[in-house]
Specification:
Elements lengths: L15 H15 L3 H11 L1 H16 L3 H4 L20 E4 L2 E15 L4 E13 L1 E11 L3 E9 L18 H37 L1 H16 L2 H10 L7 H31 L3 H8 L4 H9 L4 H24 L11 H5 L5 H6 L7 H22 L6
Antiparallel strand pairs: 1-2, 2-3, 4-5
Helix pairs in contact: 2-14, 3-14, 5-6, 5-8, 5-11, 6-8, 7-8, 8-11, 9-10, 11-14
């Protein structure tokens, strides 16, 4: 006869609250929605979170550009043409005086015909905050002159130097961000509208509709992208106002970016349309537009959001490239590409390297969207660990 196993009973007191707490925690985990689980996964991707915060701050800055910029977009300082960046200091002669810059003394180098600027320690110019400066019209509606930071009275503050007309590069970069960053948002809106529409119709109906959409996509994707951008941009009338050119460039970028998204939507719908809930909706008399919009698209909306964050950088780069080549936005509209046209001359770059600074926000923005897109793509994966 087999030996009897000893039976152990826990003598620890039973706490029903602990069991209820554990059950509630498990219920919160297992009953969480797809968006909540996506948010939990995204928070673990620290690089994506940091990139997302940086992008939020960037897009928030375009709402208050006039307040953030120390100078107006077109303010010229004719005495400080091609002035180098001024460093912000806090201590002068071992004494804390607050944020300030040293004023410039300059001489003309007749050998290379260049103004040579030298900081003068005797010119301590303290920065002013929440101050009155250049007049502006906030979003073209409200007149104002309040700025977050201003130079000292009678002083200068060129944190990123000046250009050939003496315009502050830091202020122009802030105004350029409003245009370049907005191009990506409007462009992706057009691209998503076309991609979801054509991809949804092709994936839901199939048959000859799918064949027509696929052949159209193949034709568009077979065309070289950059030459096509250049050709369409060059076709814009030179008499158009900057606003019309801006919207035209946005539409061009959106019209050429939708085929990739349409294919992704089509492949998803081809699989999801066979699901039971889709068949049930059709049997209940739901129209195809309702089935697609209410039952199919929400099931991979997270994938669409991740795709959007990866598509916006290509549109920003497209606008920058076109404007740099002189085929996109043109002055007086200011974008990153327009600012980079100042750096086309290698002699100017060698003498005034700060003219290439507009490429830094482009790089930072593109990397930010790529990191955020990678994090969203991982978070949207239903098989990823929480």
């Amino acid at each position: 006869m087999s030996e009897r196993l000893a039976h152990f009973v826990s003598e620890a007191p039973f706490d029903p609250l602990e069991v209820e707490t554990l059950t509630a925690e498990q219920e919160r985990f297992y009953m969480a929605s797809q968006w909540r689980m996506m948010w939990w996964r995204l928070k673990r991707h620290r690089l994506a979170v940091i990139a997302g915060l940086a992008l939020v701050l960037s897009y928030f800055s375009i709402l208050i550009t006039e307040v953030l910029a120390p100078y107006d977009l077109h303010t010229r300082n004719i005495d400080h043409i091609y002035a180098p960046p001024q460093l912000v200091h806090f201590f002068h002669e071992d004494r804390f005086v607050g944020p300030f810059v040293y004023g410039f003394d300059y001489t003309l180098n007749l050998e290379i015909l260049k103004k040579e600027y030298v900081p003068n320690p005797a010119k301590v110019q303290r920065l002013r905050f929440f101050c009155r400066g250049d007049d502006y019209v906030f979003w073209g509606l409200i007149e104002g002159d309040r700025h977050l930071v201003c130079p000292a009275e009678g002083g200068t503050m060129f944190l990123l130097g000046t250009d050939r007309l003496g315009r502050d590069m830091a202020s122009r970069l802030l105004y350029a961000g409003r245009i370049s960053l907005t191009v990506g948002l409007f462009g992706i809106a057009i691209s998503f509208l076309l991609g979801i529409t054509f991809g949804g119709v092709a994936g839901f109906f199939g048959g000859w509709v799918d064949n027509v959409v696929q052949r159209m996509i193949e034709i568009l994707r077979s065309l070289p992208e950059l030459p096509l951008w250049m050709a369409l941009s060059a076709a814009l009338p030179v008499t158009w106002s900057p606003i019309l050119v801006f919207f035209a460039i946005t539409i061009i970028l959106g019209l050429l970016d939708w085929p990739g998204l349409a294919r992704a939507v089509r492949s998803k719908l081809l699989a999801l349309r066979e699901e039971d809930y889709c068949a049930a909706a059709q049997l209940l008399g739901a129209r195809p537009s309702r089935v697609i919009a209410r039952h199919l698209l929400p099931n991979f909306m997270s994938h669409l959001i991740a795709s959007a964050t990866l598509s916006i950088p290509s549109m920003i780069l497209g606008e920058t490239a076109l404007s740099f080549l002189g085929l996109g936005l043109r002055p007086p509209v200011t974008s990153f590409g327009v600012l980079l046209t100042e750096a086309q001359n290698i002699e100017a770059v060698a003498l005034y390297p700060w003219l290439m600074l507009p490429m830094l926000p482009v790089v930072v923005t593109v990397l930010g969207f790529n990191f955020l897109g990678d994090g969203l793509r991982d978070a949207a994966d239903p098989y990823a660990e929480l």
